User: Fold these one by one.
Assistant:
Number 1:
Amino acid sequence: MKFARRLEPLRANVFADMDRAKSAALAQGVNILDLSLGSSDLPTNPVVLAAIATALEDPTTHGYALFHSTQPFRAAVAHHYSQRYGIPINPETEVLPLIGCQEGTAHLPLAVLNPGDYALLLDPGYPSHQGGVVLAGGQIHPMRLRSEQGFLPQFGEIPAAVLAQSRLMVLSYPHNPTTGTASLAFFEEAVAFCRSHDLVLAHDFPYADLFFEGDRPPSVLEADREKRCSIEFFTFSKSYNMGGFRIGYAVGNAEIIRALRQVKATIDFNQYRGIMAGAIAALNADQSLVAATVATFAQRRNFAVESLSKIGWPVPTPTATMYLWAPLPEPWRQNSIQFCQDLVAKTGVALAPGAGFGPGGEGYVRFALVHSPEVLGEAIARIQTFFQTAPVPWDRSIFRLFGVAHYEA
C-alpha cells in the first residue's frame, strides 16, 4: 500500500517518540514520572464545569455547531480581548473558534501557502507549525533562536531569495520550548518587516497569561492595531486548565480569518456548544482563577530550578510559560534524544528532547512543570541517581560538573 510523500517528513515527532520510550519503560515495570508534555495536572475551575454541565441538559446544544451558532462565544472573545488589550474586535469577521491553537496553526498554511512557498518558522519551535507547512506543500526556512539573542529571531539573517518566495511568518512568545519572551518593540519590528515583504504574520499565543515577572506579554495586535497583516491564536488549555476540552480561537485580520474559516469548514464544523459555554464562563469569570494557576506554576518553577541547582545542574529561571529549558552537559549535548530515552528507560523520568523541536533545540531538554513539587522532587532525585550510575562510555567528567562526590562503575 502506498501513501502520500507528504507524510515522510512527519514520521519523526517528539511527543510520539517519547510516548514509545515511555511505553517501553512501563512494560519493564518502571514507574513513569512524565515531565515531557505540557498537559496541566490542575483541575478545570468549577465555574467552567458548571456551565458545561448545564449545557449537557439542553438538547438544543447537541446538534452541529455551524458558524452562526458560535456567535455567543465569538462575542465573549471579542469583549474579553478588547478589554484586555484595548483593541476593538469585530466578532463577526475577526474571530474564529478553534479546537485549540494547534488546529489553527496547522491549518493556516493551507489557506496561505501555494506549493513551494516558504514559511519562516522559529527554530526550535512547536512541531505543529512545521507539520502544517509540510501538509500544505510549502518549504520551511528556520529562523534560528540563540540564547545570547534572547531566543529572538534575527530578521536580517533571512536570505533575500527566501524572502522573495515567502508568504508566512510564525512567531510564538512567550515561547515554547525556550521560555523566551518578546517585547512590544520586537513585535512592532516584526509587523513592519512582514508588511514590507507582504507576509502573513501568525502569532501563537497559548502562554498569554503564564508569566511570572515583568510586564504582561504583548499581543501582536498591539503592534498591528489596524490588523493589516496579523492573526493571533489563543487556547484555553493553559490559562484555564481546559486542555482536554480542546477549545481555542483565532483573532485578527478579517481576510486571514475568512481564509482560515474556509479551510476549517472543509474539515470540521465547530466545537460542541456546551464546551463553548464553558469557555464563555471562563472568560467572564473573576480572573483570579488564572492568577491561582500562574502562582502554582511559579512555585513549581522556583522549586525545580533550586532543586536542579542542588544536584549541580544549573538551569535558567524562566519568566514565563510552564517549562524549564535546560542546557545539557557536554557528554549528552549532541544527542538530547538519546539522553531522554536513556533517562526514561533507567529512571522513569520523561523529558522532551530539545532536538524534537528542531535542529536549534539540540543540546537542551524541556521540563514540563505539570506535577506537584513532591513529584518534581522525586523526578530530580532520580535524575541525580542517573548521573551517578550512568554507564561507560559516558564521560565521567559529567559527575564533577554536576557536583557528584564519586562515581561507581
Number 2:
Amino acid sequence: MRIIFAGTPAFAAAALEALIAAGHEIAIVLAQPDRPAGRGMKLVPGAVKTLALSHHLPLRQPVSLRDPDIHEELRAVAADVMVVAAYGLILPKAILGMPHQGCINIHASLLPRWRGAAPIQRAILAGDSETGITIMQMDAGLDTGDILLQRAAAVEPTDTAGILHDRLARLGADCIVEALDRLAKGTLAPQPQGEAAATYAAKVTKEEAVMRWEREAQVLARAVRAYNPLPGAAAQIRDIPIKIWQASAIPEVSGVPGEVKAADASGIVVACGRGGLRLEVLQRAGGKRLAAAEFLSGFPIAPGDRFQGRNA
C-alpha cells in the first residue's frame, strides 16, 4: 500500500520500521518539529524523524496541519491510507477524508478504555491487569472511531510505563502490518465502540507525580511504576527533592503518612495512609539512580525522618 505515515516518538518508529520491512510504500512521513531536551536544551529529533532520514523517506515537520500548503502536498501523494501513531497533532477533517482508505490510528489500549494521551500510564495507575493495542479508523472525535483490530497484552505486576510502552510498541507494529494486509484483502470488519465503557486517559503532569503519602501503599507503588520513566515519582526529605524509581508495598506497616519506619540495605520503608512503601531505587536531584543501600551511604536517612509530598 501507498502510505502517509504520521508519528513522532519511539512508539511510532516501531510501527514505521515494521511497515517498511513489510514492503509498504511510505510516500511521506509527518513528524512533529524537533523539541529542546537535556540540560543544554538542544533541539533533538524524534525517533520517527531519525528513522525516516535513515531510509531517505520524504519528511515534513509542520507546526500544524491547518496550512493549505500541507493539504495540497498530502493530496498530491494520492495515498491509499494514512497511518497515525503517537503523532501529537490533530488531523483536520479535510485530511481525515483524503486517503482512499481513510486514516488509521495505532492506540495503546483496548478502546474504548483509556482514550486520550496517556493510556499506558493510566492502565498501570488503575491497576488494570490487561491492556493492549487497538487499530482504529479515525474520525473527528478523540479516539472514538470504529475498531478495526485489537490485540490484548497483560500488564505485569512489575511493569513500569517504560517496559509496557516497549512491549506495546512491538505489538502495535505487528498489529498495523496485519491490519493493512487484511484491509487490502477486504477482511476487516469495523466495530463501533461502546460509549458506556469509555474512559479518558488524561496527560500525566509533573504535579500529579508528587507522592501523596496519605494514599494506600498499593496505589503509590503503582504510581512509582506508572511515572517511570517520565516524569518520575517525586518527593522531598529535609527539603531536598528525591525521585523514586522502584518501590514495593508492605501491607503490615502503620504510622504517620510520610514517616520513615526503617532504612537499611533492602530499602527505606515509609508509612502511607494504609500500609507502607519500601523505596528501593532513588535519585537525588542532579545525581544518579541508586539502589537503597548505595543511596543511604551518601544520604543517611533514619527512622523518624519524614518524607514530604503533597496532600491527597
